[in-house]
Amino acid sequence: MTISKKYVHLNAFIQLKKMQAGVPANAEELKKLQFRKLKKLVTHAYSNFDFYRDLMDSAKFDPQKFKELEELSLLPTISKHDYREFIDYQLEKYPGKYKGYFEDHTSGSTGVPLRVYRSWNERAYLLSKFLRVFFDNGYGIFDTTFGILAPTRFRKRDSVFQKLGVMPRVSVPYTESGEKLVQKFVESEADVLYGNISSLVQMAHYIEENNISIKPLKFYISTGEELDESSRPILHRVFGENLINHYGSIEFSTLAYRRKGEDYLHFNHDTNLLEVLDQHGNKCSQGRNVVTDFHIYSFPMIRYELGDHVETVDRDGFTMIRKIRGREDDKLKMKDGSKKSSYFIFEVFGKDLQIKQYKVIQEDFDFVRAEVVLRDQNKEQILEKDIVERFNKFVGEGIKLKIDYVNEIGPEPNGKLTKFVSRIPEKA
C-alpha cells in the first residue's frame, strides 16, 4: 500500500498508456469490451459484498448467467443515499480493511457530502482518466499547468514526477481572490490552465478590466460546472478559443469532455457505462444519467444515479453528451409540491449585456432574491423594470423578486458559482 501510494502518479501514467492503447475502433468492439468488463465487475460485486448480493438476488439477477449487456437493466439503480449506506456498512463490518485507503468527498451540494474510499491503485486509475483529457488535447510532459483546486485538495508538495522536472505544475486554492489568482497565474507562465468555471470567469474579468497581458495558452480546461453561454464569450476573449469543457465527479473522476469546435462531449465508454433513463426507467436520449464504473472494485458503483439530466446524440454508433442540464434539486420549488426548471434564469438575466454576473436564490415559496453585478450602475432602474417583467413572464406574479446590486459574486463553499440556489429543504 505504501509503495503504491508513493508512486501513484507514475502508476497513473502507466494506466493512461494502457487506456489509450485499448480504445475500441467501432461501436461493435466497444459493446464487446463493455460486456467483458461488466461481467467481471458484477461477478466480483456479487461474491464480495452483501449489498450487491442482496440487490441481485432480489432482482433475480444471476451474474453467472449474465450474457447480454442489456440485461443489466434488470438491476435497480442506486442513489447516493444507497451508496453512502453501502460504504458505512463496509466500514463498520471491516474496520481495519480500509485503513490507508485514499479518501475524498463530494461538495455536499445536495445536502450531505458523500465520502468515498478508493484503493491507491484505483486512485491512480482516476488520475489517469483526468490526465487523458490533457494528453488527448496536445499536452506535453514538460508543459507547465496552472491548476485551481479546492482547498481540501490543494497540496504544496510536488510529486516524484514534478521533482524530476516532468509535468511541472503550479496549484492554488479557489478561495484566493481574483487578483491573487491572476498574479500567480501570470508568474507561473503556464502553458495549460484548468479550474472551475467560477474561478476562470473571475480571473477573466480581472484580466480584462485591468488590461493585463498573459502568455498564450495551449488550451485550458473548465471543470466543476457546465459551461453556460454567458461565460463563454469572456473566456474566449481573454484565454482564447481552445477551451476544453470537462465533465466528471468525485466518485468517477472524468466522464466526458468537449473539444474545441465540437457541440458534444466525448464520453469515456471504455471506462464507464452510460445509461440515460426517463422518469419510468426506460432508455432515452434525454433524461437522468446512470453510470457504472468498470474499474472500481473496492466499493463498486453499478447503475449509480449521478443526478444530472443530460441530452445525448449518436456519433458513429457512440453515444455522446450534447448538453448537461443540471440536477433535479436545481429547480424552483412551488407551494403545491411541483418544481419549475431553473433554466428560465438565463432568459431573465443571462441575455442582457449590461449584466456582468448574477445569482438567483429562492428564499421561500413566494420570495426570490437575485444578486446582480452590472457593467453600468447608472442603468439600475431601467434594467430592474425589464428584469422583473421577464421574471414574471416565466414564473408568474405570485413570487416576489428582490434585486440586490453587488460589486462581485463569490463562489459557493463548494467552489462553484451557482446561478440558481433554492434554500427550501427538499422535505418541504
From TrEMBL:
Residues annotated as signal peptide: none
Name of the protein: Phenylacetate--CoA ligase family protein
Organism: Splendidivirga corallicola
